């Protein structure tokens, strides 16, 4: 059984569906190129009614200090997710600037990428273990691509972590069984088109992950 983060939420009915289904983390994307992007003002409305116990995660890609301040001036966030090329030093700066826990995403495509999880494990509060985006990809995440989960078998890091990348209602139970992930993160796998979430898929995913 794993807890769930539903990422890339941009409509109130999908926030409500994720909360009702039992998701413990909700992700909001502040990266304009993404089909899931929300503005600071939209995020203010989307995050306002989220109950205590459900964490609101703001996803940023190499954000400037100004962007972080602008979003936090409007929207109530509980965690900052960094999904770009941020260094460990930048992770520490963002933590100090925002006063919030920071989750650093690390993309894996093979064993050579694993040491990054140790490196970031000092500065970050949480780790998001994701698939490395393919060369030339438009987005650094949210591509619906899985990596070889066997890379994670028997491994431990300094921080709590989540598994992401190509998870769906059909494969999430096997991913949790193989990796022991305590939390799973999904975006494309609960969409019927890029950026368009689906209530039935959200429910099916949470049920499969928590079963
Ligand atoms: O979702 C996006 O559009 C996005 C844009 C820029 C950086 C990251 C992005 N998404 C990351 C995620 O949604 C998840 O943390 C994770 O990568 C899972 O995505 P998916 O494989 O689509 O389930």
UniProtKB/TrEMBL annotation:
Protein origin, superkingdom: Bacteria
GO biological process assignments: L-tryptophan biosynthetic process
N-(5'phosphoribosyl) anthranilate isomerase (PRAI) domain segment(s): 4-207
Keyword Amino-acid biosynthesis: yes
GO molecular function (one): phosphoribosylanthranilate isomerase activity
InterPro entries named among the record's database cross-references: Aldolase_TIM (IPR013785), PRAI_dom (IPR001240), RibuloseP-bd_barrel (IPR011060), TrpF_fam (IPR044643)
Entry EC no(s): 5.3.1.24
Catalytic activity: N-(5-phospho-beta-D-ribosyl)anthranilate = 1-(2-carboxyphenylamino)-1-deoxy-D-ribulose 5-phosphate
Pathway this chain belongs to: Amino-acid biosynthesis; L-tryptophan biosynthesis; L-tryptophan from chorismate: step 3/5
Keyword tags: Amino-acid biosynthesis, Aromatic amino acid biosynthesis, Isomerase, Tryptophan biosynthesis
Pfam families xref list: PRAI
Listed CDD domains: PRAI
Keyword Isomerase carried by entry: yes
Family: Belongs to the TrpF family.
NCBIfam families: PRK01222.1-1 (NF002295)
UniProt name for this protein: N-(5'-phosphoribosyl)anthranilate isomerase
Species in which this protein is naturally found: Paracoccus haeundaensis
Gene it is expressed from: trpF
């Amino acid at each position: 059984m794993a807890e769930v983060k539903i990422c890339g939420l941009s409509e109130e009915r999908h926030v409500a569906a994720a909360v009702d289904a039992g998701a413990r983390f909700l992700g909001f994307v502040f990266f304009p190129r993404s089909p899931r992007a929300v503005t600071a003002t939209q995020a203010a409305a989307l995050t306002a009614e989220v109950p205590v116990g459900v964490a609101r995660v703001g996803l940023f890609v190499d954000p400037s200090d100004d962007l972080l301040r602008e979003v936090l001036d409007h929207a109530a966030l509980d965690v900052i997710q960094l999904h770009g090329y941020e260094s460990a030093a930048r992770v520490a700066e963002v933590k100090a600037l925002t006063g919030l826990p920071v989750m650093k995403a690390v993309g894996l495509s093979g064993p050579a990428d694993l040491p990054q999880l140790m490196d970031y494990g000092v500065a970050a509060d949480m780790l998001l273990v994701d698939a490395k985006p393919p060369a030339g990809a438009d987005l650094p995440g949210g591509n619906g691509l899985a990596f070889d989960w066997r890379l994670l078998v028997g491994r431990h890091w300094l921080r709590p972590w989540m598994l992401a990348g190509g998870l769906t209602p059909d494969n999430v139970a096997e991913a949790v069984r193989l990796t022991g992930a305590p939390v799973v993160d999904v975006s494309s796998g609960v969409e019927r088109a890029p950026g368009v979430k689906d209530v039935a898929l959200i429910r099916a995913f949470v049920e499969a992950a928590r079963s």
